[in-house]
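DM from R.C. (forwarded with permission)

"hey, sorry to bug you on a friday — could you get me a structure for this? deadline for the figure draft is monday and I only need the backbone to look sensible"
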Amino acid sequence: MKQLCCTIGALILLGLGATPALAQQQDFSAVQIKATKIGGDLYTLEGQGGMIGALVGPDGVFMVDSQFAPLTDKIVAAIKQLTDRPIKFLVNTHQHGDHTGGNENFAKLGVTIIARDELRARFSQAPPGGRGSAPPAAALPTLTYKTSATLFMNGEEVRLIPVPAAHTDGDTMIRFRKADALMTGDFYRSIQYPNIDRANGGSLKGMIDGLQAVVDEASPTTKIIPGHGPIVDESAVVAHRALLIAARDKVAALIKQGMTLEQITAAKPLAEFDGKVSQPGTTGDRLIGQLYGELGGK
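My reply, with the result:
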């Protein structure tokens, strides 16, 4: 029963954007951090929350995302098993708490937090809908960018590629050239339906364009590392984008018939896709609501 409750709690956090206040109520004591080598000196770290990337080597550690604040000590310990060099940089793929909750802790360790201008601007405010307060100043990125940026570190070329107004309005995907890997954050997840966080600047067009940008950036051998879920290749992203477009068209057709959101949800227009989304019990109801708003439903 405890395990079931923890699982439900984790799913709620993912759906809500995982605010710091909610995260502090969770029990992280049993969470273990699993490191997986991706290629070259790039590793992923899985715990609870969004996928972490760690590029290690003589120049220090470059991280992607920080998961929840209570996990920082475990994350740091896992990285120390990979290298004795200090953590230098941490880039946020977007502002949700399961990807940024540890920012303040890492900043206090001397890590430079990096993100898009748009992320810092939104992250400095309280979450929409009264779900918590603004993070402390120490959690905010101190190095920001608007167009793409490139870092050369540990013999790797790391490109930070803005993805405008997709899952949120502060998304970034990170390309590791030597390791032939691409981390997407949550505008692509290999589990669950697409999630357009309209309250935080996400948009349907941005999601479709962002998924196409992943396909354009990747090669057939590129390892695509989603914000949540198993690593995939570009064909999975092509299928995910096609699903989103098909869902858009189905909901648009029902709106054109004059159906309300409640009527469209009850009609279950996305039921045929449920089996293609690799997470048991997932339905398209949240996406239907997001599409209804994006497509001008009344």
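R.C.: lifesaver. The chain has a mean pLDDT of 91.
me: no worries. The chain has ten helices and twelve strands.
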